[in-house]
Amino acid sequence: MTSSSRNPILITASRLLAxxxxxxxxxxxxxxxxxxxxxxxxxxxxxxxILMLRLSVGAERSELKFRKSWGTPVGALGALIFAGTGxxxxxxxxxxxEYHFLPLPDLSRAELHSAGILLIEVGVSLAVMAVLxxxxxxxMEGTGGD
Amino acid sequence: xxxxxxTALGLLLLASALIxxxxxxLLAAAVTLSVFSFISALIYLVMGAVDVAFTEAVVGAGITGxxxxxxxxxxxxxxxx
Lengths: 146, 81
Known about the structure:
The complex is a heterodimer. In chain A, about 70% of the residues lie in helices and about 0% in strands. By secondary structure, chain A is mainly alpha-helical. In chain A, helix 1 packs antiparallel against helix 2 (about 40-55). The longest helix of chain A is centred in the last third of the chain and has 32 residues, at about 110-140. The radius of gyration of chain A is 18 Å and the shape is elongated. The relative contact order of chain A is 0.17. The mean pLDDT of chain A is about 85. Chain B has one domain (about 5-75). In chain B, helix 1 (about 5-20) packs antiparallel against helix 2 and helix 2 runs antiparallel to helix 3. Chain B has helices at about 5-20, 25-45, 50-75. Helices cover about 80% and strands about 0% of the residues of chain B. Chain B is mainly α. The chains are: A mainly alpha, B mainly alpha. The interface between A and B is medium-sized, with 20 and 15 residues.
């Protein structure tokens, strides 16, 4: 946790691994309604990659990827995307999260379902990632940096 | 269907739980809890609940392990043993 424990092997390995973890997390998010996975798992994987960078290269350099002050706004944005999709269908005459009322032109009912589920999963993943990173940042707050 | 595999994984799960309870080194206990989560994810996988297994592997072995270790670094042991 201190700067004396910064190990070049750890730093290099985590910097190499983090983009691939994030790529796989994006695959999990966007492939969620065809196979196992989905918004929560993908968001947790994104959070895990950011936490790995926080632990290995330190707070100030890992903030280049995700700032500490972004935790609450991004989490709120994710919740807004989730609830907004549901409330939009509610406003347009359907029930909560009744996807085929979404105002997307030229899409069939099944395609509207896929698009709605995709919106929900993007919202869930943003909220989960931001909140998990914010929990870590709040634990570390006031302990002298990393 | 996979009774032998389930039994072996269950015994491993029990062993990792008992080891995590008995260890005096809290860092090693946290790592053993991650092992516990991973083995339970394998059990879910054998039983066919792929989604639950995925969640357990990501959250149990990834996030809570990190949080446990971070909290351990911020606490100190009062007694020396």
